[in-house]
Amino acid sequence: MRRGMLRRPSNRAPPSRAELQLHLPTNQLQAVEGGEVVLPAWYTLHAEVSSAQPGEVPFVMWFFKDKEKEDQVLSYINGVTTSKPGVSLVYSMPSRNLSLRLEGLQEKDSGPYSCSVNVQDKNGQASGHSIKTLELNVLVPPAPPSCRLQGVPRVGANVTLSCQSPRSKPAVQYQWDRQLPSFQTFFAPVLDVIRGSLSLTNLSSSMAGVYVCKAHNEVGTAQCNVTLEVSTGPGAAVVAGAVVGTLVGLGLLAGLVLLYHRRGKALEEPANDIKEDAIAPRTLPWPKSSDTISKNGTLSSVTSARALRPPHGPPRPGALTPTPSLSSQALPSPRLPTIDGANPQPISLIPGGVSSSGLSRMGAVPVMVPAQSQAGSLV
């Protein structure tokens, strides 16, 4: 009986195909510029061991998406690996570990990276497909900062020490310390950790020293320093400017005084100048007995004939020949007709035929005419 019995077919379903799962970190990865980083990635087939099975063929591609487009940075297809410079797989293929290595990182390498994998069995049938993305952030340490001193460091004055790093990611914070002659650290409000400025007020000689600024973020530190020397008097530039200004002012004043003195002397010299080689003026012969002079001392007329005589002998070179003036010319003396044998009385007339009495009635004023001596001087 039992031998003739047939087995009932089993109700169990045939085993299903394995499910592929790709594993990538969910948190953001960080790296430092200039270094390298590994982007971990691996896949598994559900209910199977993690190691690759004989005849299992993976097809792997990595992509990087920047702000403009998505680029393929590595591919492994049919046993051939193609990649961009500085990009490689950590493990040799075939392997279920698809981790990617990036070397010589730059800030522009920050962004999303996507891993895509297709797996086929030895018969060429697809075992599964998956794609996932992770985020990479490349940090930049602070570039060497520059330190500056703003203001004039004198006793009682105010100055500001500034510090600035040209490049960093993330943004840096600043710290100022005095190293020499004694250590001293500074805090707000005199210190601005964001702008990197340190305000020093009411300077004193004890505040002099070497001040160090440290620019730091989570991936690096850089520093610079400045030496503060506090002077007790005005700056050298101020002193030099004052000395030069004083000298220039004195020079201008001396020049004005000299110019005024020379100008006054030049105006006085023509009035007092007596030329030694000058020729004395020739004296005119004056009449003696026949001259007529008014009672009040005024020269009214000259009738002397000698005044009209030319000088004896030839004239000397350069000598002046006097020309008789109207008052020195001889005028005929009119005579009145005699009455009863009386002697005629001469009447003195000035040129023009007007008598002196007539001029007096007309309002004329007598004028003193200076006489000239034979030596040429006025009398």
TrEMBL record:
PROSITE patterns: IG_LIKE (PS50835). One of its GO terms (molecular function) is cell-cell adhesion mediator activity. It comes from Macaca fascicularis (Crab-eating macaque). It comes from the Eukaryota. Residues 322-331 have a biased composition (Polar residues). InterPro entries: ESAM, Ig-like_dom, Ig-like_dom_sf, Ig-like_fold, Ig_sub, Ig_sub2, Ig_V-set. GO terms for biological process: homophilic cell adhesion via plasma membrane adhesion molecules. Residues 305-350 are annotated as: Disordered. This is Endothelial cell-selective adhesion molecule. Its main location: other. Residues 15-132, 145-231 form the Ig-like domain. GO terms for cellular component: adherens junction; bicellular tight junction; plasma membrane. It is a single-pass type I membrane protein.
